[in-house]
Amino acid sequence: MHTWYEQAVFYHIYPLGLLGAEKTNTLTETAHRLTELESWIPHISDLNGSAIYIGPLFESCTHGYDTKDFRLVDRRLGSNEDFARFVRLCHENGIRVVVDGVFNHTGREFFAFQDIREKREASPYKDWYRGVNFGWGSPLGDPFGYEAWQGHFELPCLNLWNPEVRQYLFDSIQFWVDNFNIDGIRLDCANVLDFGFMKELREKTSAMKPDFWLMGEVIHGEYNRWVNPEMLHSVTNYELHKALYSGHNDHNYFEIAHNVRRLEAVGRSLYTFVDNHDEDRIASKLNNLANLFPVYQLLFTLPGIPSVYYGSEWGIEGKRSRTSDEVLRPALNLSDMHGKAPELASHIAALGKIHTENDAFHNGSYKELLLTNRQYAFSRSGEHGTVISAVNNDEQPASISIPLPCAASDVVSLLPGEIPFSLENGRLSVTLPANGGAIFKLQEV
Question: What is the reported pLDDT for 266?
Answer without folding.
Answer: 80
